[in-house]
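Forum: Protein Structure Q&A
Topic: Joint prediction for protein chains with partners

I've read a bunch of threads here and the consensus seems to be that you should model interacting components together rather than docking separate models afterwards. I'd like to see that in practice. Below is the full input, 534 residues plus whatever partners are listed. Could one of the regulars post the assembled result?
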Amino acid sequence: MPRSIWNGTITFGLIGVPIKVHSASESHTIHFHQVHESDGARIKQKRMCSKEGKEVPYKEVAMGYELRGGEFVMLEKDEIDAAAGSRSRRIELEQFVERDQIDPVFYDRTYYLGAGEDGADAYRLLHDALEQAQRTGLGRWVFHNREYLVAVRASDEVLALHTMRFADELVPVSKLDISAPSRKPSEPELDMAEQLVESLHKAFRPGAFKDTYRDRVAELIKRKAKGEEIELPEYEEPEAPDDLMAALEASLGKGKKSRSKARS
Amino acid sequence: MARSLWSGSLSFGLVNVPVAMVTAVRDLDLHFRQLHEKDGAPIEVQRWCSKEDVEVPWDEITHAYEIEGGGQVIVTDEELEAIEPRRTRTIDIESFVDLAEVDPVYFDHPYYLLPAGSDDGSARAYRLLVEVMARTDRAALGRFVMRAKEYLAIVRAHDRALMLSTMLFADEVRDTKDVAAATQKSHKPSAQQLKAAVAVIEELSENWEPGEWKDRYRRRLQDVVARKRKGETIKVPEPQEAAEEAPDLMAALEQTLAEMRSGKRQKQEA
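Posted by a regular:
Agreed with the consensus. Here's the joint model:
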Protein backbone atom coordinates (compact mmCIF):
# COMPACT_ATOMS: atom_id res chain seq x y z
CA MET A 1 0.00 0.00 0.00
CA PRO A 2 1.43 3.41 -0.91
CA ARG A 3 2.05 5.80 1.94
CA SER A 4 -0.86 7.43 3.69
CA ILE A 5 -2.25 10.78 2.55
CA TRP A 6 -3.54 11.91 5.94
CA ASN A 7 -3.01 10.88 9.55
CA GLY A 8 -5.32 11.70 12.41
CA THR A 9 -7.81 10.31 14.89
CA ILE A 10 -11.37 9.09 14.54
CA THR A 11 -13.37 9.56 17.71
CA PHE A 12 -16.68 8.15 18.84
CA GLY A 13 -17.70 9.16 22.33
CA LEU A 14 -14.43 9.46 24.28
CA ILE A 15 -12.75 6.69 22.32
CA GLY A 16 -9.96 7.75 20.01
CA VAL A 17 -8.88 5.61 17.04
CA PRO A 18 -5.58 6.73 15.45
CA ILE A 19 -5.82 6.12 11.71
CA LYS A 20 -3.97 6.57 8.43
CA VAL A 21 -5.89 7.37 5.27
CA HIS A 22 -5.00 5.68 1.96
CA SER A 23 -6.68 6.20 -1.38
CA ALA A 24 -8.74 3.13 -2.32
CA SER A 25 -8.26 3.55 -6.03
CA GLU A 26 -5.59 4.27 -8.60
CA SER A 27 -6.19 5.35 -12.15
CA HIS A 28 -4.62 3.37 -15.01
CA THR A 29 -5.78 5.73 -17.73
CA ILE A 30 -3.15 6.20 -20.42
CA HIS A 31 -2.14 9.84 -20.44
CA PHE A 32 -0.89 11.84 -23.37
CA HIS A 33 1.08 15.06 -23.52
CA GLN A 34 -0.06 17.89 -25.71
CA VAL A 35 2.46 18.57 -28.46
CA HIS A 36 2.74 21.03 -31.32
CA GLU A 37 1.79 19.17 -34.52
CA SER A 38 4.43 20.80 -36.73
CA ASP A 39 7.51 20.06 -34.62
CA GLY A 40 6.36 17.55 -31.99
CA ALA A 41 7.54 19.86 -29.21
CA ARG A 42 5.80 19.76 -25.85
CA ILE A 43 3.08 22.36 -25.25
CA LYS A 44 3.52 24.37 -22.08
CA GLN A 45 0.82 26.42 -20.50
CA LYS A 46 1.44 30.06 -19.75
CA ARG A 47 -0.60 32.21 -17.40
CA MET A 48 -1.03 35.54 -19.17
CA CYS A 49 -2.42 38.75 -17.76
CA SER A 50 -5.35 39.69 -20.04
CA LYS A 51 -4.64 43.38 -19.50
CA GLU A 52 -0.85 43.51 -19.88
CA GLY A 53 -0.42 40.54 -22.22
CA LYS A 54 2.53 39.37 -20.09
CA GLU A 55 3.18 36.09 -18.33
CA VAL A 56 2.20 36.10 -14.63
CA PRO A 57 4.30 34.17 -12.07
CA TYR A 58 2.27 31.93 -9.73
CA LYS A 59 2.98 34.06 -6.67
CA GLU A 60 1.20 37.00 -8.32
CA VAL A 61 -1.96 34.98 -8.90
CA ALA A 62 -5.02 35.80 -6.77
CA MET A 63 -8.46 34.24 -6.93
CA GLY A 64 -11.52 36.05 -8.25
CA TYR A 65 -15.15 35.32 -7.51
CA GLU A 66 -17.19 36.67 -10.39
CA LEU A 67 -20.18 38.87 -9.62
CA ARG A 68 -22.92 39.67 -12.06
CA GLY A 69 -21.66 42.25 -14.51
CA GLY A 70 -18.22 40.72 -14.83
CA GLU A 71 -16.74 42.25 -11.69
CA PHE A 72 -14.64 40.18 -9.35
CA VAL A 73 -14.21 39.94 -5.59
CA MET A 74 -10.48 39.32 -5.25
CA LEU A 75 -9.23 36.88 -2.58
CA GLU A 76 -5.82 35.61 -1.58
CA LYS A 77 -5.41 31.85 -1.94
CA ASP A 78 -5.11 31.40 1.83
CA GLU A 79 -8.27 33.38 2.46
CA ILE A 80 -10.11 30.69 0.51
CA ASP A 81 -8.30 28.07 2.56
CA ALA A 82 -9.69 29.75 5.69
CA ALA A 83 -13.13 28.39 4.80
CA ALA A 84 -11.88 24.90 5.63
CA GLY A 85 -12.71 25.67 9.26
CA SER A 86 -10.88 24.22 12.19
CA ARG A 87 -8.24 22.18 10.29
CA SER A 88 -8.64 19.62 13.01
CA ARG A 89 -6.73 16.35 12.89
CA ARG A 90 -9.74 14.44 14.11
CA ILE A 91 -12.89 13.05 12.61
CA GLU A 92 -15.63 12.85 15.20
CA LEU A 93 -18.27 10.26 14.37
CA GLU A 94 -21.27 12.31 15.46
CA GLN A 95 -23.97 9.94 14.36
CA PHE A 96 -24.45 6.35 13.28
CA VAL A 97 -27.01 5.10 10.79
CA GLU A 98 -28.05 1.68 9.53
CA ARG A 99 -25.52 0.63 6.91
CA ASP A 100 -28.14 -0.25 4.30
CA GLN A 101 -30.00 3.05 4.62
CA ILE A 102 -27.39 5.00 2.67
CA ASP A 103 -27.95 4.84 -1.07
CA PRO A 104 -24.60 4.44 -2.84
CA VAL A 105 -25.33 7.57 -4.89
CA PHE A 106 -24.21 9.54 -1.81
CA TYR A 107 -20.74 8.01 -1.83
CA ASP A 108 -18.17 10.06 -3.69
CA ARG A 109 -14.53 9.01 -3.19
CA THR A 110 -13.49 5.98 -1.18
CA TYR A 111 -10.46 5.71 1.08
CA TYR A 112 -9.16 2.79 3.10
CA LEU A 113 -8.12 3.38 6.68
CA GLY A 114 -5.13 1.74 8.33
CA ALA A 115 -4.45 1.67 12.05
CA GLY A 116 -2.28 4.56 13.24
CA GLU A 117 0.51 4.35 15.76
CA ASP A 118 -0.50 2.42 18.90
CA GLY A 119 -4.02 2.30 17.52
CA ALA A 120 -4.43 -1.34 16.55
CA ASP A 121 -6.73 -2.32 19.42
CA ALA A 122 -8.97 0.72 19.02
CA TYR A 123 -9.07 0.20 15.24
CA ARG A 124 -10.18 -3.40 15.61
CA LEU A 125 -12.74 -2.40 18.23
CA LEU A 126 -14.37 0.23 15.96
CA HIS A 127 -14.30 -2.13 12.99
CA ASP A 128 -15.85 -5.05 14.84
CA ALA A 129 -18.44 -2.89 16.60
CA LEU A 130 -19.56 -1.31 13.29
CA GLU A 131 -19.82 -4.73 11.75
CA GLN A 132 -21.77 -6.20 14.62
CA ALA A 133 -24.13 -3.20 14.82
CA GLN A 134 -24.45 -3.14 10.98
CA ARG A 135 -23.98 0.60 11.13
CA THR A 136 -22.01 3.34 9.45
CA GLY A 137 -20.57 6.35 11.29
CA LEU A 138 -20.94 9.90 9.97
CA GLY A 139 -18.64 12.82 10.68
CA ARG A 140 -16.75 15.75 9.19
CA TRP A 141 -13.26 15.55 7.77
CA VAL A 142 -11.03 18.49 6.89
CA PHE A 143 -8.74 17.42 4.06
CA HIS A 144 -6.76 19.65 1.67
CA ASN A 145 -8.40 22.80 3.01
CA ARG A 146 -11.90 21.55 2.49
CA GLU A 147 -14.42 20.08 4.89
CA TYR A 148 -16.17 16.90 3.82
CA LEU A 149 -19.04 14.88 5.19
CA VAL A 150 -17.69 11.35 5.53
CA ALA A 151 -19.09 7.91 6.20
CA VAL A 152 -16.93 5.32 7.97
CA ARG A 153 -17.91 1.68 7.61
CA ALA A 154 -16.52 -1.79 8.03
CA SER A 155 -15.71 -3.32 4.64
CA ASP A 156 -14.53 -6.89 4.98
CA GLU A 157 -11.49 -6.67 7.22
CA VAL A 158 -10.79 -2.95 6.87
CA LEU A 159 -12.41 0.35 7.68
CA ALA A 160 -13.45 2.30 4.60
CA LEU A 161 -14.13 6.03 4.53
CA HIS A 162 -16.27 7.66 1.88
CA THR A 163 -16.51 11.37 1.21
CA MET A 164 -20.21 12.06 0.73
CA ARG A 165 -22.31 14.09 -1.65
CA PHE A 166 -24.74 16.47 0.00
CA ALA A 167 -28.46 15.97 -0.55
CA ASP A 168 -28.83 19.29 -2.39
CA GLU A 169 -26.17 18.21 -4.89
CA LEU A 170 -28.35 15.37 -6.15
CA VAL A 171 -30.82 16.11 -8.92
CA PRO A 172 -34.27 15.00 -7.69
CA VAL A 173 -36.19 12.57 -9.91
CA SER A 174 -39.13 15.02 -9.84
CA LYS A 175 -37.02 17.42 -11.93
CA LEU A 176 -36.55 14.85 -14.70
CA ASP A 177 -38.56 14.63 -17.87
CA ILE A 178 -39.74 11.02 -17.85
CA SER A 179 -42.67 10.53 -20.18
CA ALA A 180 -45.21 8.02 -18.87
CA PRO A 181 -46.30 5.32 -21.33
CA SER A 182 -49.97 5.30 -22.42
CA ARG A 183 -50.38 2.03 -20.54
CA LYS A 184 -48.21 0.42 -17.92
CA PRO A 185 -46.24 -2.74 -18.69
CA SER A 186 -48.54 -5.72 -18.35
CA GLU A 187 -48.04 -8.55 -15.85
CA PRO A 188 -47.02 -11.02 -18.60
CA GLU A 189 -44.47 -8.49 -19.84
CA LEU A 190 -43.13 -8.00 -16.32
CA ASP A 191 -42.96 -11.76 -15.73
CA MET A 192 -41.18 -12.22 -19.01
CA ALA A 193 -38.74 -9.41 -18.22
CA GLU A 194 -38.12 -10.92 -14.81
CA GLN A 195 -37.30 -14.26 -16.41
CA LEU A 196 -34.88 -12.47 -18.67
CA VAL A 197 -33.26 -10.75 -15.67
CA GLU A 198 -32.99 -14.13 -13.94
CA SER A 199 -31.48 -15.75 -17.01
CA LEU A 200 -28.76 -13.07 -17.02
CA HIS A 201 -28.26 -13.12 -13.25
CA LYS A 202 -24.70 -13.61 -12.09
CA ALA A 203 -22.67 -13.13 -8.96
CA PHE A 204 -20.82 -9.80 -9.00
CA ARG A 205 -17.23 -10.57 -9.96
CA PRO A 206 -15.54 -7.23 -10.61
CA GLY A 207 -12.38 -8.89 -11.92
CA ALA A 208 -14.33 -10.29 -14.86
CA PHE A 209 -14.47 -6.83 -16.43
CA LYS A 210 -11.29 -5.56 -18.02
CA ASP A 211 -10.75 -2.10 -19.35
CA THR A 212 -10.47 -3.20 -22.97
CA TYR A 213 -10.45 0.38 -24.19
CA ARG A 214 -7.26 1.03 -22.25
CA ASP A 215 -5.76 -2.07 -23.94
CA ARG A 216 -6.79 -0.74 -27.34
CA VAL A 217 -5.13 2.61 -26.64
CA ALA A 218 -1.94 0.76 -25.69
CA GLU A 219 -2.22 -1.31 -28.89
CA LEU A 220 -2.77 1.84 -30.97
CA ILE A 221 0.37 3.39 -29.53
CA LYS A 222 2.31 0.23 -30.35
CA ARG A 223 1.04 0.16 -33.95
CA LYS A 224 1.72 3.86 -34.41
CA ALA A 225 5.23 3.38 -33.09
CA LYS A 226 5.72 0.88 -35.95
CA GLY A 227 4.32 3.41 -38.43
CA GLU A 228 1.01 1.63 -39.22
CA GLU A 229 -2.14 3.32 -40.58
CA ILE A 230 -5.35 3.31 -38.52
CA GLU A 231 -8.81 2.94 -40.14
CA LEU A 232 -12.19 4.36 -39.05
CA PRO A 233 -15.11 1.95 -38.38
CA GLU A 234 -18.82 2.69 -39.10
CA TYR A 235 -21.80 2.53 -36.76
CA GLU A 236 -25.37 1.20 -36.97
CA GLU A 237 -28.17 2.65 -34.85
CA PRO A 238 -30.33 0.05 -33.08
CA GLU A 239 -34.07 0.74 -32.97
CA ALA A 240 -36.66 0.50 -30.19
CA PRO A 241 -38.89 -2.57 -30.58
CA ASP A 242 -42.39 -2.09 -31.99
CA ASP A 243 -43.58 -5.16 -30.18
CA LEU A 244 -42.18 -5.33 -26.64
CA MET A 245 -43.62 -8.77 -25.91
CA ALA A 246 -42.18 -10.27 -29.08
CA ALA A 247 -38.77 -8.80 -28.32
CA LEU A 248 -38.85 -10.21 -24.78
CA GLU A 249 -39.88 -13.65 -26.04
CA ALA A 250 -37.21 -13.60 -28.71
CA SER A 251 -34.61 -12.60 -26.13
CA LEU A 252 -35.55 -15.44 -23.84
CA GLY A 253 -35.58 -17.94 -26.70
CA LYS A 254 -32.20 -16.72 -27.77
CA GLY A 255 -30.88 -16.88 -24.21
CA LYS A 256 -31.99 -20.50 -23.85
CA LYS A 257 -30.61 -21.54 -27.18
CA SER A 258 -27.19 -20.12 -26.56
CA ARG A 259 -27.06 -21.71 -23.10
CA SER A 260 -27.96 -25.18 -24.39
CA LYS A 261 -25.42 -24.71 -27.13
CA ALA A 262 -22.79 -23.90 -24.54
CA ARG A 263 -23.57 -27.10 -22.68
CA SER A 264 -23.38 -29.45 -25.66
CA MET B 1 -33.38 20.39 -17.48
CA ALA B 2 -29.75 19.49 -17.88
CA ARG B 3 -28.64 18.77 -21.39
CA SER B 4 -27.85 15.17 -22.21
CA LEU B 5 -24.24 14.07 -22.08
CA TRP B 6 -24.74 10.94 -24.10
CA SER B 7 -27.55 9.37 -26.02
CA GLY B 8 -27.96 5.95 -27.45
CA SER B 9 -29.77 2.86 -26.36
CA LEU B 10 -29.79 0.53 -23.44
CA SER B 11 -29.96 -2.97 -24.78
CA PHE B 12 -31.44 -5.77 -22.80
CA GLY B 13 -31.68 -9.07 -24.66
CA LEU B 14 -33.30 -8.01 -27.93
CA VAL B 15 -35.06 -5.06 -26.31
CA ASN B 16 -33.52 -1.69 -27.08
CA VAL B 17 -34.51 1.26 -24.96
CA PRO B 18 -33.49 4.63 -26.46
CA VAL B 19 -32.08 6.72 -23.63
CA ALA B 20 -30.40 10.04 -23.00
CA MET B 21 -27.99 10.43 -20.12
CA VAL B 22 -27.99 13.46 -17.82
CA THR B 23 -25.91 14.02 -14.73
CA ALA B 24 -27.48 13.11 -11.39
CA VAL B 25 -25.36 15.58 -9.42
CA ARG B 26 -25.22 19.33 -9.74
CA ASP B 27 -22.13 21.34 -9.07
CA LEU B 28 -22.89 23.74 -6.23
CA ASP B 29 -19.24 24.57 -5.55
CA LEU B 30 -18.11 28.16 -5.71
CA HIS B 31 -15.80 28.66 -8.64
CA PHE B 32 -12.99 31.12 -8.83
CA ARG B 33 -11.03 32.56 -11.68
CA GLN B 34 -7.37 33.29 -11.49
CA LEU B 35 -6.63 37.02 -11.46
CA HIS B 36 -3.44 38.99 -11.70
CA GLU B 37 -3.13 40.35 -8.17
CA LYS B 38 -1.57 43.65 -9.25
CA ASP B 39 -4.28 44.85 -11.63
CA GLY B 40 -7.19 42.47 -10.99
CA ALA B 41 -7.25 41.41 -14.63
CA PRO B 42 -8.34 37.83 -15.39
CA ILE B 43 -5.55 35.42 -16.26
CA GLU B 44 -5.75 33.60 -19.56
CA VAL B 45 -4.05 30.27 -19.99
CA GLN B 46 -2.30 30.09 -23.32
CA ARG B 47 -0.61 27.12 -24.92
CA TRP B 48 2.89 27.81 -26.14
CA CYS B 49 5.30 25.69 -28.12
CA SER B 50 8.27 24.89 -25.91
CA LYS B 51 10.61 24.85 -28.92
CA GLU B 52 9.53 27.89 -30.91
CA ASP B 53 8.21 29.99 -28.00
CA VAL B 54 5.05 31.02 -29.88
CA GLU B 55 1.41 30.60 -28.94
CA VAL B 56 -0.13 27.49 -30.55
CA PRO B 57 -3.78 27.47 -31.74
CA TRP B 58 -5.95 24.48 -30.70
CA ASP B 59 -6.05 22.94 -34.17
CA GLU B 60 -2.25 22.61 -34.21
CA ILE B 61 -2.17 20.61 -30.99
CA THR B 62 -2.01 16.85 -30.99
CA HIS B 63 -1.34 14.09 -28.46
CA ALA B 64 1.92 12.33 -27.81
CA TYR B 65 2.70 9.30 -25.73
CA GLU B 66 6.15 9.18 -24.23
CA ILE B 67 7.83 5.83 -24.76
CA GLU B 68 10.37 4.26 -22.48
CA GLY B 69 13.93 5.06 -23.31
CA GLY B 70 12.99 8.47 -24.76
CA GLY B 71 11.10 9.44 -27.87
CA GLN B 72 7.38 9.79 -28.36
CA VAL B 73 4.53 8.46 -30.49
CA ILE B 74 2.10 11.00 -31.96
CA VAL B 75 -1.55 9.94 -31.80
CA THR B 76 -4.24 12.11 -33.41
CA ASP B 77 -7.85 12.70 -32.27
CA GLU B 78 -9.06 10.80 -35.34
CA GLU B 79 -6.93 7.78 -34.49
CA LEU B 80 -8.20 7.73 -30.94
CA GLU B 81 -11.75 7.93 -32.29
CA ALA B 82 -11.01 5.05 -34.65
CA ILE B 83 -10.31 2.65 -31.80
CA GLU B 84 -13.50 3.42 -29.92
CA PRO B 85 -15.35 0.14 -29.86
CA ARG B 86 -18.13 -0.45 -32.36
CA ARG B 87 -20.81 -0.59 -29.69
CA THR B 88 -20.30 3.01 -28.83
CA ARG B 89 -23.99 3.97 -29.13
CA THR B 90 -25.35 1.26 -26.88
CA ILE B 91 -25.11 0.24 -23.27
CA ASP B 92 -25.20 -3.50 -23.63
CA ILE B 93 -26.47 -5.16 -20.47
CA GLU B 94 -24.22 -8.15 -19.93
CA SER B 95 -25.57 -9.40 -16.63
CA PHE B 96 -27.76 -8.61 -13.65
CA VAL B 97 -26.34 -8.70 -10.13
CA ASP B 98 -27.74 -8.26 -6.64
CA LEU B 99 -27.29 -4.60 -5.84
CA ALA B 100 -26.26 -5.40 -2.25
CA GLU B 101 -23.34 -7.47 -3.56
CA VAL B 102 -21.65 -4.52 -5.24
CA ASP B 103 -19.19 -2.83 -2.89
CA PRO B 104 -19.69 0.97 -2.95
CA VAL B 105 -15.96 1.41 -3.70
CA TYR B 106 -16.82 0.54 -7.33
CA PHE B 107 -19.33 3.36 -7.80
CA ASP B 108 -17.94 6.40 -9.56
CA HIS B 109 -20.09 9.12 -11.13
CA PRO B 110 -23.92 8.94 -11.08
CA TYR B 111 -26.18 9.81 -14.00
CA TYR B 112 -29.83 9.37 -14.87
CA LEU B 113 -30.94 7.66 -18.03
CA LEU B 114 -34.09 9.24 -19.47
CA PRO B 115 -36.36 7.67 -22.08
CA ALA B 116 -35.35 9.31 -25.35
CA GLY B 117 -37.65 7.91 -28.02
CA SER B 118 -40.75 9.99 -28.77
CA ASP B 119 -42.89 6.90 -29.31
CA ASP B 120 -44.91 5.07 -26.70
CA GLY B 121 -42.91 1.87 -27.19
CA SER B 122 -39.76 3.52 -25.81
CA ALA B 123 -41.59 4.87 -22.77
CA ARG B 124 -43.03 1.42 -22.05
CA ALA B 125 -39.75 -0.40 -22.50
CA TYR B 126 -38.15 2.13 -20.11
CA ARG B 127 -40.88 1.68 -17.53
CA LEU B 128 -40.63 -2.09 -17.83
CA LEU B 129 -36.93 -1.99 -17.03
CA VAL B 130 -37.48 0.32 -14.03
CA GLU B 131 -40.19 -1.90 -12.63
CA VAL B 132 -38.44 -5.20 -13.14
CA MET B 133 -35.22 -3.97 -11.48
CA ALA B 134 -37.12 -2.43 -8.56
CA ARG B 135 -39.06 -5.67 -8.13
CA THR B 136 -35.99 -7.93 -8.17
CA ASP B 137 -33.50 -5.59 -6.40
CA ARG B 138 -31.10 -6.32 -9.19
CA ALA B 139 -28.84 -3.97 -11.06
CA ALA B 140 -27.63 -4.32 -14.62
CA LEU B 141 -23.96 -4.32 -15.57
CA GLY B 142 -22.88 -3.13 -18.97
CA ARG B 143 -20.34 -1.13 -20.87
CA PHE B 144 -20.52 2.01 -22.92
CA VAL B 145 -18.22 4.58 -24.43
CA MET B 146 -18.43 8.26 -23.62
CA ARG B 147 -15.92 10.94 -24.51
CA ALA B 148 -13.41 8.47 -25.88
CA LYS B 149 -13.32 6.27 -22.82
CA GLU B 150 -14.96 2.96 -22.22
CA TYR B 151 -16.84 2.71 -18.96
CA LEU B 152 -18.19 -0.14 -16.96
CA ALA B 153 -21.62 0.92 -15.75
CA ILE B 154 -24.20 -0.24 -13.27
CA VAL B 155 -27.83 0.62 -14.00
CA ARG B 156 -30.53 0.38 -11.35
CA ALA B 157 -33.98 1.63 -10.52
CA HIS B 158 -34.04 4.85 -8.52
CA ASP B 159 -37.58 6.04 -7.84
CA ARG B 160 -39.24 5.88 -11.27
CA ALA B 161 -35.98 6.59 -13.07
CA LEU B 162 -33.03 4.52 -14.21
CA MET B 163 -29.81 5.58 -12.57
CA LEU B 164 -26.48 4.73 -14.14
CA SER B 165 -23.21 4.92 -12.25
CA THR B 166 -19.90 4.60 -13.96
CA MET B 167 -17.73 2.08 -12.13
CA LEU B 168 -14.09 1.55 -11.37
CA PHE B 169 -12.46 -1.49 -12.93
CA ALA B 170 -11.23 -4.10 -10.48
CA ASP B 171 -7.58 -3.27 -11.16
CA GLU B 172 -8.24 0.37 -10.25
CA VAL B 173 -9.33 -0.64 -6.74
CA ARG B 174 -6.43 -1.22 -4.41
CA ASP B 175 -6.00 -4.46 -2.59
CA THR B 176 -6.86 -4.11 1.08
CA LYS B 177 -4.43 -6.79 2.16
CA ASP B 178 -1.65 -4.21 2.52
CA VAL B 179 -3.77 -1.94 4.74
CA ALA B 180 -2.70 -2.10 8.39
CA ALA B 181 -6.09 -3.31 9.55
CA ALA B 182 -4.93 -4.86 12.83
CA THR B 183 -6.27 -8.28 11.97
CA GLN B 184 -3.96 -10.19 14.32
CA LYS B 185 -5.74 -12.08 17.04
CA SER B 186 -4.00 -10.07 19.74
CA HIS B 187 -5.94 -6.94 18.69
CA LYS B 188 -9.33 -8.60 18.88
CA PRO B 189 -11.54 -6.74 21.37
CA SER B 190 -12.87 -8.57 24.42
CA ALA B 191 -16.57 -9.41 24.49
CA GLN B 192 -17.02 -6.76 27.15
CA GLN B 193 -15.29 -4.05 25.06
CA LEU B 194 -17.25 -4.97 21.96
CA LYS B 195 -20.54 -4.86 23.85
CA ALA B 196 -19.73 -1.42 25.24
CA ALA B 197 -18.63 -0.08 21.82
CA VAL B 198 -21.83 -1.36 20.18
CA ALA B 199 -23.79 0.31 22.99
CA VAL B 200 -22.04 3.64 22.28
CA ILE B 201 -22.82 3.28 18.56
CA GLU B 202 -26.45 2.51 19.31
CA GLU B 203 -26.75 5.49 21.65
CA LEU B 204 -25.55 7.72 18.80
CA SER B 205 -27.75 6.09 16.17
CA GLU B 206 -30.34 8.00 14.16
CA ASN B 207 -32.20 7.57 10.93
CA TRP B 208 -30.24 8.57 7.84
CA GLU B 209 -31.64 11.97 6.90
CA PRO B 210 -29.32 13.21 4.14
CA GLY B 211 -30.98 16.65 4.03
CA GLU B 212 -29.92 17.33 7.62
CA TRP B 213 -26.24 17.35 6.68
CA LYS B 214 -25.37 20.69 5.17
CA ASP B 215 -22.26 21.63 3.27
CA ARG B 216 -20.73 23.90 5.91
CA TYR B 217 -17.64 24.42 3.76
CA ARG B 218 -19.72 25.90 0.94
CA ARG B 219 -21.52 28.14 3.45
CA ARG B 220 -18.26 29.35 4.99
CA LEU B 221 -16.75 30.01 1.59
CA GLN B 222 -19.82 32.07 0.61
CA ASP B 223 -19.32 33.95 3.88
CA VAL B 224 -15.63 34.57 3.17
CA VAL B 225 -16.51 35.99 -0.26
CA ALA B 226 -19.28 38.19 1.20
CA ARG B 227 -16.99 39.56 3.93
CA LYS B 228 -14.20 40.17 1.47
CA ARG B 229 -16.61 42.07 -0.75
CA LYS B 230 -17.30 44.41 2.18
CA GLY B 231 -13.57 44.98 2.47
CA GLU B 232 -12.91 42.85 5.55
CA THR B 233 -9.70 40.88 5.98
CA ILE B 234 -9.93 37.16 6.55
CA LYS B 235 -7.84 35.47 9.24
CA VAL B 236 -6.51 32.03 8.53
CA PRO B 237 -7.06 29.68 11.50
CA GLU B 238 -4.10 27.80 12.97
CA PRO B 239 -4.14 24.01 12.74
CA GLN B 240 -5.39 22.40 15.92
CA GLU B 241 -3.45 19.74 17.71
CA ALA B 242 -5.47 16.65 18.44
CA ALA B 243 -5.98 16.13 22.16
CA GLU B 244 -4.42 13.01 23.61
CA GLU B 245 -6.83 10.15 23.94
CA ALA B 246 -7.31 8.07 27.02
CA PRO B 247 -5.04 5.07 26.44
CA ASP B 248 -7.32 2.66 28.22
CA LEU B 249 -10.08 1.63 25.85
CA MET B 250 -12.36 0.12 28.44
CA ALA B 251 -12.15 3.21 30.66
CA ALA B 252 -12.98 5.46 27.69
CA LEU B 253 -15.93 3.26 26.73
CA GLU B 254 -17.30 3.20 30.25
CA GLN B 255 -16.92 6.93 30.70
CA THR B 256 -18.64 7.61 27.37
CA LEU B 257 -21.58 5.39 28.27
CA ALA B 258 -21.87 6.90 31.73
CA GLU B 259 -21.91 10.44 30.30
CA MET B 260 -24.42 9.53 27.61
CA ARG B 261 -26.76 7.89 30.02
CA SER B 262 -26.65 10.78 32.46
CA GLY B 263 -27.47 13.08 29.53
CA LYS B 264 -24.17 14.93 29.75
CA ARG B 265 -23.14 14.23 26.19
CA GLN B 266 -25.55 15.90 23.86
CA LYS B 267 -25.89 14.91 20.26
CA GLN B 268 -24.09 17.44 18.13
CA GLU B 269 -25.94 19.51 15.65
CA ALA B 270 -25.24 18.36 12.10
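The two ends of chain A are 46 Å apart (CA to CA).
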